[in-house]
Every structure is written in structure tokens, then in C-alpha cells.
Amino acid sequence: MTTYAIGDLQGCHREFVALLERLSFDPRRDRLWLAGDLVNRGPGSLECLREVRDLGEAARVVLGNHDLHLLAVARGGASTKRSDTLDDILAAPDRETLLDWLQAQPLWVDDDSDSDRRRLMTHAGVLPQWSLDKARALAREAEAVLGGGRSGSFLECMYGNSPSRWDDSLEGIDRLRMIVNAFTRMRFIAADGTLDFDAKEGLDSAPPGFHPWFTYPREDDPHILFGHWAALQGQTPDTAVRAEALDTGCVWGGSLTALNLDSGQRISEPSQQD
């Protein structure tokens, strides 16, 4: 059995199928970790959802910000954006089945190890101010709301850049929004854990006083897999933790990359986007 971690699909279905063929992936034997953002911007969002869902137990998925945007549009009353490619999903006959499946996905997956060196994956990373146990518990707290009876009310007010820094005293929507933003939108942060939501390009776009989240040291030593940040092109220079970027910008003309978690080898499929 081989386990692969793959970065953001974002509707790049042709490349996803080609990459699985390149890997000789067999769902009866092998496993996939998918770093979120299965949908949006690319032309095959509906096909990506169906393909991953049909993999069943062979695939472990975390929610990304574009996945949450789809849920907010479909179930939280949010509006689509000009660059969205979600109409096929919203009009699909199996729409509700796919949305139910997506909404049940977590913000965090790990290898179930009790060690500080556990391997884990979230869409954007792990806030350095959170221990692994705390981060996992906060992920589960937000997941319980996203998958429960209060999900609609949260999806209606999920968007927002405030609060931008974690505080244990946060409650209600502010608390949930901060948890979700950290796991799905984080790139640059300040030393006190304040998130910046504006800079989205490469490392040289950092605002004054802000640095990539993975350059701050942690007391534990996990192996963190993350997507979200296509401008890194799969590189994490000056990292203070073992963090591996998986999003290599397929939807932007880059490639779709799989990391063999056993050997460390990276295998990429070139983008077919126009």
C-alpha cells in the first residue's frame, strides 16, 4: 500500500485522472490525502467531487476555503463570484448528495499517532500558537458545527476577517470564524499569531512584521502537509517546522502534484488549463 498527498484540485479533473494513472493508483490498495479546495476556478469541479467521493475510504479529504465557499453559496445564502465555476454542481441532479458528503469532511486529518511527530494535513496549515492537541480539538469543534444543525447559521456569517488573532476567550461566531480562517485561509502571520488576509502572492509579498506561518518555531515536531498557497510552487524555504506545500498551481497553469508519503518522492502532472 502506498499513500499519496495531493494538492488543491480546484476543478482540474483531467489532470487529476491523469495523475492517478501516472501513479498507477489502486483504491483497493493505495490511499490518498487531499489537501482541500477540490472545487472552483477550474472547469471540472463537479467531476472532481464525484471522482473523490467515489473513492470512498481510499481518500481522506480536508475542507478548503473554496469548498466552504461552495457550501456557503448552496446552503448559506452567499452569492457566487464572477470567477466561480460552481454552476454545474449547483445544477447537478446529485447536488444534495455531493454537498452532504462535502459538508461532512473535516478540517484536519492525521495518522492517529499520539506522538508530537505525527503526520497531519490541513488546508492552510497550523497556527504556531496552538499545540497539536489544541489545534485538533479546535478543528473538531468547528467540524461539529459545520456538520450539525447550526451549520446554516454559521455558513451565513462565516465570511469575515475579524477576529484576526486567536484568544481563548473567543465565543460564538467569532470563535468559529477564527478557527476556520486559521485552517483554511492562513498564509502570513505576525509573531503574536495575527493573520493577514490581503497578501496572497509569494514570500516577497509579506506585509511588514508578517512572515509565513511555517517560519515560526513550534514546541512539538509534526509533519504538516498543506495546500492553499499556490505561489509557493511547492517550496517552503526557511521553514522552522517540517511543513510541505502541496499546491503547485494546476488551475493557474502550473501542475498537480502528488507526494509519496512513504518515499518522499513528488510526482507532477502538467496543467492542461488554457
Molecular structure report:
The chain is α/β, with parallel strands linked by helices and 274 residues long. It has a single domain, classed as Metallo-dependent phosphatases (Purple Acid Phosphatase, chain A, domain 2), CATH 3.60.21. 29% of the residues lie in helices and 14% in strands. A five-stranded mixed β-sheet has the order 3-2-1-10-11, covered by helices on one side. Helix 6 packs across helix 8 (172-185).
Quick structural summary:
It is built from eight helices and eleven strands. It has 274 residues and is α/β, with parallel strands linked by helices.
Strand content: 5-15%
Under CATH, the homologous superfamily reads Metallo-dependent phosphatases
CATH architecture label: 4-Layer Sandwich
CATH class categorisation: Alpha Beta
Number of domains: 1
What is the string of helix and strand elements? Answer: EHEHEHHHEEHHHEEEEEE
Radius of gyration, rounded? 17 Å
Number of helices: 8
In terms of structural class, how would the helical and strand content be classed?
Answer: alpha/beta
Instruction: Work out the helicity level.
Output: 25-40%
DSSP strand tally? 11
Mean pLDDT: 95
| CATH topological fold name | Purple Acid Phosphatase, chain A, domain 2
- Spatial shape: globular
The termini sit apart by 35 Å
